[in-house]
Amino acid sequence: MNVAIVTAEFNEEITSRMLEVASEKAKSLNLNIKYSCKVPGAYDMPIVVDALLQRKDVDGVITLGAIIKGQTKHDEVIAQSTARSLTELSVKYQKPVSLGISGPGMQERHAYARIRPVAERAVEAVLKLSKELEKIR
Q: Which amino acid positions bind (2S)-2-hydroxy-3-oxobutyl phosphate, per UniProt (predicted)?
């Protein structure tokens, strides 16, 4: 299975670690990472995910990001908008797109604690969804 990974650069100390974990997990599951792209933030992911899903050599996309709570509800707006857009793209192209984006409403220490579980589950989700789609096609 050929996958792409799209990683947000915002909160890069966290997301770069998420990328390392996701890459290790993908390798352990024999997934081929065809593309690894970086975008400024989670909100910026949909346009790159859209371009990747149009490619015949991409079977699914793993997204990685960390949305940390600030002093406003901006984190909630970003998370909801991004999740909705990624879901719509997954349905449009009938290819799995995982939501490996932690947050909203979390503090920085929570984001660090979620690096491994969120990144690993994002990889696993793309693989599991792909297998389920194969069963019904």
A: 71-72, 114
